[in-house]
């Protein structure tokens, strides 16, 4: 039996060093980075072109606090799962703009790796393997979906 293909991940972060660190953590988690964007316009365009499974999105990008709108468009138009990676957790709307959750900055390497592993299982199996790991806060919608199984929404 062959191993499944790694999840494709788009990194949406305007700070180059943080984007590089996230790319390293994505690779360490066994996932595949497919692109990087520094602005909301670039993020939406790349997501449409690359159709990632997962997008890691900061709220405040090169063109301002536009990550929320970019996330909403990526979820709606591409169908990718979005995870916010931000120090601006308070800027997230109550619906998380359709994102599955958030990891607050500053984050640890361990928090990101365990969150990526958890999300990979959720996406592959269609349900959560248990409660989210420390550091990952699921949106209310995804808490309900993953508690009941994603396959029901199908």
Topology, please?
Elements: E1 8-12, H1 16-28, E2 32-37, H2 40-50, E3 54-57, H3 67-78, E4 81-86, E5 101-104, H4 109-125, E6 136-138, H5 140-148
Parallel strand pairs: 1-2, 1-3, 3-4, 4-5
Antiparallel strand pairs: 5-6
| CATH topology assignment | Rossmann fold
- Tally of helical segments: 5
CATH class: Alpha Beta
In terms of per-residue confidence, which ranges show pLDDT below 50 for 5 or more consecutive residues? none
* Percent of sequence in beta strands: 15-25%
How many E strands? 6
| Biggest sheet descriptor | 6 strands, mixed
Name of the CATH superfamily: Response regulator
| Assembly classification | single chain
Order of helices and strands: EHEHEHEEHEH
Kindly, what is the distance between the CA atoms of the first and last residues, rounded to a whole number of angstroms? 26 Å
Structural class: alpha/beta
Which range best describes the helical content: under 10%, 10-25%, 25-40%, 40-55%, 55-70% or over 70%?
40-55%
Radius of gyration: 14 Å
Walkthrough of the structure:
This protein is of the alpha/beta class and 154 residues long. The protein has one domain: Rossmann fold (3-Layer(aba) Sandwich), CATH 3.40.50. The chain contains 5 helices and 6 strands, in the order E-H-E-H-E-H-E-E-H-E-H. It has helices at residues 16-28, 40-50, 67-78, 109-125, 140-148, and strands at 8-12, 32-37, 54-57, 81-86, 101-104, 136-138. A 6-stranded mixed β-sheet has the order 2-1-3-4-5-6, with helices on both faces. The longest helix has 17 residues, at 109-125. The two termini are 26 Å apart.
């Amino acid at each position: 039996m062959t191993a499944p293909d790694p999840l494709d991940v788009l990194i949406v972060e305007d700070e180059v060093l943080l984007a590089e660190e996230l790319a390293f953590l994505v690779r360490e988690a066994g996932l595949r980075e497919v692109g990087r964007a520094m602005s909301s316009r670039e993020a939406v365009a790349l997501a449409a072109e690359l159709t990632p499974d997962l997008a890691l999105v900061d709220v405040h990008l090169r063109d301002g606090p536009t990550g929320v709108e970019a996330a909403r468009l990526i979820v709606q138009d591409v169908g990718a799962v979005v995870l916010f990676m931000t120090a601006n957790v308070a800027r997230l709307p109550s619906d998380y703009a359709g994102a599955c959750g958030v990891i607050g900055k500053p984050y640890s390497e361990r928090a990101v790796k365990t969150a990526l592993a958890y999300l990979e299982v959720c996406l592959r199996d269609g349900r959560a393997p248990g409660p989210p790991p420390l550091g990952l806060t699921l949106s209310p919608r995804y808490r309900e979906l993953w508690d009941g199984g994603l396959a029901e929404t199908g």
